[in-house]
């Protein structure tokens, strides 16, 4: 069913799902220092905004995280991660997770930044569709693979705009 939209519930990431997040990291980012369960726990402990995408049976299909620093009008947000189980990709889950993060950033009217592998055309297209533009290049950003990353930026938006 590739290409079809899968119904998911996006909600605050549960601590009980951190082991699954780490498992998905191993699958998705094995060549680039995947995050551990402890790394995800540290992100939650710092108060960063993490959400999960859950199916009807409450299985975690994907996760995403955002950090916000400062207050409007100087607030900035950084997308730390978005990951979707490969068995459920190309079904709108990544988009739903991104929209949840952007909704949070918009509450702070924050300029939002992220890094994305330069060879990840699908992700770059998704980010462009949601207002991001490439503003820089980070050579050998991902380790240990040495893959390059684009830095992308989305201007601040108000939750009452448009």
Automatic annotation (TrEMBL):
Name of the protein in question:
Ribosomal protein S18-alanine N-acetyltransferase
* This protein's encoding gene: rimI
GO CC aspect terms = ribosome
Q: Which organism is it from?
A: Saccharopolyspora taberi
SUPFAM superfamilies in UniProt: Acyl-CoA N-acyltransferases (Nat)
Q: Which family does it belong to?
A: Belongs to the acetyltransferase family. RimI subfamily.
What keywords appear on the UniProt entry?
Acyltransferase, Cytoplasm, Ribonucleoprotein, Ribosomal protein, Transferase
Methyltransferase recorded as keyword: no
Q: Write down the PANTHER family for this protein, in alphabetical order.
A: ACETYLTRANSFERASE, ACETYLTRANSFERASE YPEA
N-acetyltransferase domain ranges (all copies)? 8-157
């Amino acid at each position: 069913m590739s290409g079809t939209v899968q119904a998911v519930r996006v909600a605050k990431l549960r601590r009980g799902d951190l082991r699954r997040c780490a498992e998905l990291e191993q699958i998705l980012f094995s060549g680039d220092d995947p995050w551990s369960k402890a790394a995800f726990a540290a992100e939650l402990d710092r108060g960063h905004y993490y959400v999960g995408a859950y199916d009807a049976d409450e299985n975690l299909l994907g996760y995403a995280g955002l950090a916000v620093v400062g207050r409007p009008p100087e607030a900035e947000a950084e997308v730390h991660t978005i990951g979707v189980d490969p068995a459920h990709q190309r079904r709108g889950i990544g988009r739903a997770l991104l929209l949840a993060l952007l909704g949070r950033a918009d509450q702070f009217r924050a300029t939002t930044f992220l890094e994305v592998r330069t060879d990840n055309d699908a992700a770059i297209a998704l980010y462009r569709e949601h207002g991001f533009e490439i503003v820089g290049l980070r050579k050998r950003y991902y380790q240990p693979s040495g893959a390059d990353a684009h830095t992308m930026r989305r201007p601040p938006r108000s939750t009452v705009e448009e």
